[in-house]
Amino acid sequence: INGNHIFTADYTQDIYETFSYTGGFKNVEWFKKYVFDLETEEALAGMCIDVIPVTMDELSQELLDKADFLYFADTSDASDFRDDDTATTETVEGLTEDMAKAILKKALDGVPLALNRSLYTNEHNGELVRKLAACLIQENPESVIPVGGIDSLIISALDLDELATTMKKPLTLLDENGADKKLSLTYVSGNIFVYDDTCEAPLFNIGKKNIVSSDFDKKVFTDAEIENGFKAILEEIRNENFYLEVAGKTQRIEEKVTMATALRYIINFGDRRNVTKTTLRVLDLEPYDFEDYYEGSKNQNGSTAYQDIKVSGSTNGISVNKIETDSICLTADGRLDKKRWIIDNLAPQFEEQPDKLDVTIMGTKEFIGKLEDLNTEYDLIYLGMDTSIMNTEITNNPDGTKTKTDKTVYNDSSMNGLVYSHVGDEIGLAKGNEVKGYFRLSGNDITADKLRELREYIEAGYAFILSDDFLIKNGADYKVNTARIDSSSNMYKLIHDTVLKKENGEYRYYGKNVNSKSNFENTNSVAVGVRESFSRYMGISKLTLKYSADDLPTAYNQPDGTQKYLTPDADGIYHLEYDIELQNDAAVEITSTSYDCQLYVDADADGRFDSDERLTGLKITDDSGFVKSVDAEGRYHLLAGSTYHISREIPEGFTGFLAWKLEFCQNDRTYEGTDDSAVIRCAIEGFSAVPYVGEKPLIKILQITNADGKTNLDLDGNDMHKLYNGVQDFSINVTKMSSTEYIKKTAFADKDKSHSEYLKNYDMVVMGFRDMYRFGSSCNEDQIVEAILAIREYALSGRSIMFTHDLNSFRIEDNTDRTWGWYANKYLRDVQGMDRFGEVQASGILPEDEKYAYISQYDHAVLKGASVEKMGFSNPIVVDDEFKPYGYRNGYGENARRATWRFRYHFNYHRNGVDYNFNSQVAQVNAGQITEYPYKISESFATSHSHPQYFQLNMDTDNRDANTNDDIVVWYTLSKMPNWNDSFFAANEMDVRNNYFIYNKGNVTYTGSGDKTVTSDEEKKLFVNTLVASYRVGMHAARALFKENQWETSATINSRYIPYDPQMNDGNGGFLEQDLPVHFYTSNTSLLKTNEPLYAKYYIDASETDYDLYTDGRYYKEVVPKSAYRIAEQDGSLIPLEETPFTLIGNSMHTVTFDYSELGLGNAEGIRDTYSKNIYVRLGYEELLNTAPGTETLLPATESMNKLHIVCTQLFELR
Fold this sequence. Notes:
Elements: H1 30-35, H2 41-46, H3 61-66, E1 70-72, H4 97-108, E2 113-116, H5 118-121, H6 127-136, H7 160-165, E3 172-174, E4 180-182, E5 187-189, E6 192-195, H8 223-246, H9 259-268, E7 280-286, H10 291-294, H11 305-312, E8 322-323, H12 340-345, E9 357-363, H13 364-367, H14 374-377, E10 380-383, E11 392-396, E12 402-408, E13 426-431, E14 434-440, H15 448-459, E15 463-466, E16 471-474, E17 477-480, H16 490-499, E18 502-503, E19 506-507, E20 514-516, H17 525-538, E21 544-546, E22 575-583, E23 594-601, E24 614-615, E25 619-622, E26 627-628, E27 638-639, E28 643-649, E29 656-666, E30 681-690, E31 698-705, H18 718-725, E32 731-738, H19 739-743, H20 755-759, E33 764-767, H21 781-796, E34 800-804, H22 822-827, E35 840-843, E36 860-863, E37 919-924, H23 929-932, E38 940-946, E39 968-974, H24 984-987, E40 996-1001, E41 1004-1007, H25 1017-1033, E42 1039-1043, E43 1055-1060, E44 1076-1083, E45 1093-1101, E46 1109-1111, E47 1114-1119, E48 1123-1127, E49 1134-1136, E50 1143-1145, E51 1149-1154, H26 1156-1159, E52 1162-1163, E53 1166-1167, E54 1172-1180, ...
Parallel strand pairs: 1-2, 2-6, 7-9, 7-10, 8-12, 10-15, 15-20, 31-32, 31-33, 33-34, 34-41, 43-55
Antiparallel strand pairs: 3-4, 5-6, 11-12, 13-14, 16-17, 18-19, 21-22, 22-28, 23-24, 23-27, 23-29, 25-26, 25-28, 29-30, 35-36, 37-38, 37-39, 39-40, 40-41, 42-44, 44-51, 45-47, 45-50, 45-54, 46-47, 48-49, 48-51, 52-53, 54-55
Helix pairs in contact: 4-6, 15-16
């Protein structure tokens, strides 16, 4: 066939065969595959990349605004797409000043940009093009922006020679012949990629200059090339692998750099992790808090305690010149420098901003009582072993000076060398100079609760350094140094089970986020590597929350000293509302990692937020208004980078103080062996309050004073009533009587008049406020025992009770002379949490074979005969010089053997006149309801004269996971007096186990007030706060709130109108409904009892001739409902309550139905004469008993009688 043939398609004919032909270019999708890591055909097809080629003069602002990636090629690059291979030599023009500035701004805003360096070096390019390229290839492109901003920049006016001086320079290496070889200046700088093939060793030796070539993902850059221009990419890959490792992921990114990874880097640069910390918070956890000893407020003579020893010598005539310490905050010459070690060895960036580095020194005796989340509070924890204020050996140096070594010395020589011990040194019980026995000090171990918290911190991957003395080499491995760590201690468990935990033969944490102090102090390459690796852990960006004060519920205590309450919505409902943005740059997958949201209220006023205090039913909406729901496991899935509105309705009937905590937890990071304990978490805590509307609830208090009726704080006095009047949400009524009066109040062995029944009349009992308090020493022994057991029963039943100063003594074995404190020691010490070693044991046998009138629902205490060493005496207990085998009286004599817990062994407080055992200053350990409501209390203030009590607190009962409400929380401890750094309390400040001043253990509260007359207003206010908090924790009567219908959100009513038709006579008295339904909500403000069952009885008014209950001068007849249901909160379905009497649930909706005739409202003959009736719902926690004939029932404070008024309303007759 000659000539050309033009094919014309004919769509009317049949198709016999088809074929395809690919010519010209083939799209191999390298960009999608190797830059965006897309693999499947579906994923490849789902991503569209639109390439728009334009010349400089064709570029418009509209195209520039749409661009997600900018690629600027040199003029010669375009030859690859021309028909001939002739390179142009013409000058490229067409770029305007405005467009050049717009391109630069786009690049500085983070849009990825790639350009050929020859845009600057090729003189054929226009001057403005070269100057723009020169700006983009600066070491720091932002440096070209003048003070006035980019709008004041004129690119065409810049000098090319000056720009050349600040450009990135290529590295020069030696080739195989030893000659200089300049590397290609191809590199990335942030979101800018610069490639260059004009030098002797180009990065891509492919004969062409396009960045997408056949080596796009195959050519792996050499170490020299990476060092020259791609070091940031390799560091980014390693960082991502680090976060994968911390998160427990097994996958890793291959540590190679190619052209594809370079392009991926600049594309992702704008959304890269930002983990640069601008602040650093460090906890230095030590055996003792030594800070005040070396620096701070001065002693009475104007010097520091250390200077007193070093300069003036000691009472023992020993002067030291040097100390052995491994603390990160102390120097060898005894100077306190809290930040120097951190800056020199870990964080040099804080040299210029030391105020951004915060270091807290804390001893374990304070740490075990501190309520704080280590995972959110600290970026680094140092676990130290400083012994400088402990009793240690002194050595003589060759130059005649003395060094205080770090080897500890104890009375019990078997403990010598130990720094952390579960139980402390032995102390002699002396008669004169003769030792008659010993007891043990408390030691300085951490509790099991703190063991768990430290383990969680380490498992989360956060930075943790420990003193070298914790570990010793064991071949190629390490083991716990038991010469320094008590092998029976929780501290030992921390090191053995967590720090030295192994997986697959390698340490899981040690050598990674956990390391020893000396590994940071060396200057060799190994130490440099350790510091670089460890800095990643120290710099982990935590989950953070962005909000302002206006985004949170109204704070009760305002900055100006005033108080504010929450305000209700239009329906009178109160809410806790939040607007929070989540941020987390440390998540492995930032855009897909989800977070649960949990809201807690401190129901038991103990400062903790336990799992049983979590509120469900949150309403969460995102910033687009979409309502978030929970998954099948009850978890929300919120995303970082989004703002959420969170709201929770406050249950009706709740009033007063509300401590809350809003916590966000990463869903895919939980601790080993748990399903719901989140590793990554962040929380906000606050204090709000709901005002009481109407008549304020009355708190009825019984104050039981000393046997002689004297007290150092009269709760019924004028000063206290003035403070009570300042409590807006409660009324307080005090009944005061001596312990003798209380004991004689009821008849012994008369069940109907037992002490236990009598105490039910009060919401709260207060005992003490007297030095050497005596409990009815002149009364009959049987009466005393029954009376004290009733108080024990009252406390164990969950009712509010407060014990105060000197209720206990250290008399433990005999009561021949009915001494002070003996009965409390025997029957109440464990209730108070003062039985660390379990000496007060529970027994099922009542004293004297059930001799007493009532049968307890709870255990009874009997004293177990055991060694004195296990009694758990507190540090300040001192023996008297008339030691007797049956007990130890309150004599403040001299110990035969000095206690090693006193800081330095040079001081002897008994001999140098320091009144160490008494004090009138307290310091705050934790903040919560007791410190905030109704009065804001200072963190430190003067009190009346006081001293420590006689037994250690059992801080080891703390077990948050068990939710037993037995956790002890110390709010204030006895503290050093101002300028008394050489006092007993300076070395033992914040010692929660021994020097407690106010603490609570569930419904039981203790205050150290009362040794002398209480005169301080701040101390009285603190007592009022303690009283209100104690009341809130205790068990109080639930109320029935009657509702219009079966929904909790319906209106609360006091009256109910029932329509009837007098013309109807259908056997139902004219009522339009067959039965009368009564809906009510069981409002239980006794927050500890929210899930407790409630017993219920129902009554109508009655006469004295026909009644079932007679109380408070009124007669009631019991009525039994036809049916009773609890209404499910989720869907309103009815759950039958079949027990009799019907058992209800606190804080739930219920419906009961009555027959009209049963209520006396109607019968088959029509309406009776009475057109209204009262229905009463009686609620209580124990079985409700009616009145025996001829007697009157006094309802206890834990029961309530709730009235609904029923009115029959006649329908109008229509004619």
